[in-house]
Amino acid sequence: MAHYGRFSVDTDGADVVAVRPAAEDGDPSPLIGNVPGSVTHPSRIRRPAVRRGWLEHGPGPTALRGNDSYVEMDWDEFVPLLAGELRRVIDRHGNEAIYGGSYGWGSAGRFHHAQSQVHRFLNTIGGYTRSVGNYSLGATNVVMPHVMGSHWKLFSRSTSWDVIAEHTDLLVAFGGVPIKNTFVNHGGTSHHPTRDALHRLRARGGRIVSISPLADDLEGTAERLAPVPGSDVALMMALAHVLATNGWHDTRFLERYTVGYDRFEDYLLGRTDGMSKSPEWAEALTGIPASVTRDLARRMARSTTMITVTFSLQRTRHGEQAPWMGMTLAAMLGGIGVPGAGFGHGYGSMNEPGIGPVPYPLPTLPQGTNRVPTSIPVAAVSDMLLNPGAPYDYDGERRTFPDIRLVHWAGGNPFHHHQDLGRLREALGRPDTVVVHDPFWTPMAKHADFVVPSTTSLERDDLSCTRNDPWLVAMPAAVARFADSKDDYETFTLLARELGIEQEFTEGRNAADWLRHLYEPWRAFVSAAGRVTPPTFAEFWRDGAFRMDTEDDLTLLADFRDDPARAPLRTPSGRLEIFSETIDGFGYDDCAGHPRWYEPQEWLHGERAGRFPLHLVANQPRTRLHSQLDHGAVSQASKVQGREPVRMHSDDARARGLADGDVVRVFNDRGACLAGLRVDDGLRPRVVQLATGAWYDPLDPVDPRSMCVHGNVNVLTEDRGTSSLAQGCTGQHVLVEIEKWTGALPPVRAHQPPEFAERPQK
Ligand code: PGD
């Protein structure tokens, strides 16, 4: 099982040579094609390694990270060295000085999940500064609990695809429903129902309106609106305006189930700021003719309409507004809680929305308790490392960044997920020591002092399951461990032994014992609940999988609609908060008490567009999961002259004298990268698209702002939070210019290991 699907493999003993999707997956993900050859790929980390400069000079800030050679060594030498450094930092600076917990997806598998392992280990050694939130949903994670209550319901109990296919007449999809993202689900996924559900909806006579600057954000027949990127909230406001001014809004729903509509309406109709958010007002921002907006609003008011907002819309500056305004628009239509109507978030952003949840807890590795209370919003990592002691705002609190001396990272790649990589490189120069566990020499591993060779999920026994998928799957090792790599659990066990806390960390269990230990108490619990009786562990392992039950045919917030007194939302009012006293009380100038239109900085109408006239959409890749297996066959087949493809409308290509297949330089005042041009008239003119995930490959590793020769888009993006409320990731949008690359073509070395060196003389 992988995050992108269930499959079986053929091996030659050392590596995977072929993959076959599971039979029950009617629409398997092409991403499994990246797996063959991955176990023994030259980019694997063969042995423990320490950065040469660290061995020579010891811990401390340095500009050498990302620009140094490595000394490989045996585990016997490596473990005491790393344990000693952990001990030094704790003794001298306290546990708060360790930043860990590691944001990142790692691999599927409940036990060997790298993040769970590193959490458990760092908790056992006394705690660490952790991060909260994630890069996917930074804004949603904070704003939606205030205004909708338990935001997890949005995903785990979202309206089922079957219900949408059967009942929705009009699917208004802000951000479309990109099938490529539904290949993936955190923790694994056994089937991919989205394409079929959209097909069934259409076959029933349902209509889909895809609102996106990229045509392929919705496959198959759909009406398409392509607003100026970043203007969706203005379009939603205009739709709301038409509903309000025509009396098409559902006042009974608003009175019974929401609070604060009146205050929002004052803003909508311009009573508070003198600016009516009419379709004409919006047209100047979105480029969508007012008549089209009016017509769509009319149809929405007359149909069973489902409004969906993709995660990508909140991964921009002021990203809080898109889901909040989507919810508000759906509340005005009055369909929330009605089968096929209402609001959805993340259809097409991941496979999970639309698939029913397992109605009981899943086997889970206990992670212990973190005795350090300090945390940061996850996308503030560079801010934290660069500004110890500096104040910042977050969700109503005025906080202070801790002083981090050691970064301990496992299962994530900040050179994939973070913005403004030049700034990240400077930030990673600040701590005394950086530790990275990964199977591969990723750019993050190449910036570490201690590099820990992890196994991949193909080299270890595990079991996998996830909240919204019926299958609990045995994942027996397919091949032997590569070279001198170890499971992260084993590495942490060795470190714990060296630090004298082995028993606390392992509880006397090896990995095989833990699998049984996760499974058997879970089996007893589920059996007692009386819904299903899972087989014994031995039977489960022999059979390879167990089908749990899932709750199907869900309608989001149907219980709340039925009886808001009995099933209130977990908001202060118990209702949907179109006006939030809590958020208003924070007094932020970048996130008011009700949804608002805020003009972004990175957009085509702004001042910056004079210098950088193309709006780049930095979205999720179609050919790999994030940065994982970028060297795999599917990812490599998409590259143009070895570079990540950037798509552009033919008008823009012609204006710059560019042709399909050219290598181009994509740049702004933060950085530059090379990419391979693909001309595609499915993009709105002046919009270009470059997916995340090409491994960062600086032309001059000494220069933190060096051009990336491979096409990592995050050298261009701004490192700035969504707002003072959520401080979420804003990497989705950035302004750039593009020109032909006329110099000699630098080689791509991203997937090669670093230089290795002899041990320095002391
Ligand atoms: P991955 O490439 O999945 O990216 O960012 P994330 O860091 O999750 O990194 C996972 C790493 O875990 C890989 O290096 C992999 O090799 C390693 N790994 C796999 N298995 C194991 C294991 O067993 N042990 C260890 N130690 N390591 C393992 C994803 C993040 O990027 C996300 S979720 C989103 S939604 C964001 N999206 C955007 C965006 O839209 N636009 C921009 N510009 N930037 C983004 N960044 C974010």
Automatic annotation (TrEMBL):
<feature type="domain" description="Molybdopterin dinucleotide-binding">
    <location>
        <begin position="614"/>
        <end position="731"/>
    </location>
</feature>
<dbReference type="Pfam" id="PF18364">
    <property type="entry name" value="Molybdopterin_N"/>
</dbReference>
<keyword id="KW-0500">Molybdenum</keyword>
<dbReference type="InterPro" id="IPR006656">
    <property type="entry name" value="Mopterin_OxRdtase"/>
</dbReference>
<feature type="compositionally biased region" description="Basic and acidic residues">
    <location>
        <begin position="641"/>
        <end position="654"/>
    </location>
</feature>
<dbReference type="Pfam" id="PF00384">
    <property type="entry name" value="Molybdopterin"/>
</dbReference>
<protein>
    <submittedName>
        <fullName>Molybdopterin-dependent oxidoreductase</fullName>
    </submittedName>
</protein>
<dbReference type="InterPro" id="IPR050612">
    <property type="entry name" value="Prok_Mopterin_Oxidored"/>
</dbReference>
<feature type="domain" description="Molybdopterin oxidoreductase">
    <location>
        <begin position="44"/>
        <end position="496"/>
    </location>
</feature>
<comment type="similarity">
    <text>Belongs to the prokaryotic molybdopterin-containing oxidoreductase family.</text>
</comment>
<dbReference type="InterPro" id="IPR041460">
    <property type="entry name" value="Molybdopterin_N"/>
</dbReference>
<dbReference type="InterPro" id="IPR041954">
    <property type="entry name" value="CT_DMSOR/BSOR/TMAOR"/>
</dbReference>
<dbReference type="InterPro" id="IPR006657">
    <property type="entry name" value="MoPterin_dinucl-bd_dom"/>
</dbReference>
<keyword id="KW-0560">Oxidoreductase</keyword>
<feature type="region of interest" description="Disordered">
    <location>
        <begin position="628"/>
        <end position="654"/>
    </location>
</feature>
<dbReference type="Pfam" id="PF01568">
    <property type="entry name" value="Molydop_binding"/>
</dbReference>
<feature type="domain" description="Molybdopterin oxidoreductase N-terminal">
    <location>
        <begin position="2"/>
        <end position="39"/>
    </location>
</feature>
<keyword id="KW-0479">Metal-binding</keyword>
<dbReference type="InterPro" id="IPR009010">
    <property type="entry name" value="Asp_de-COase-like_dom_sf"/>
</dbReference>
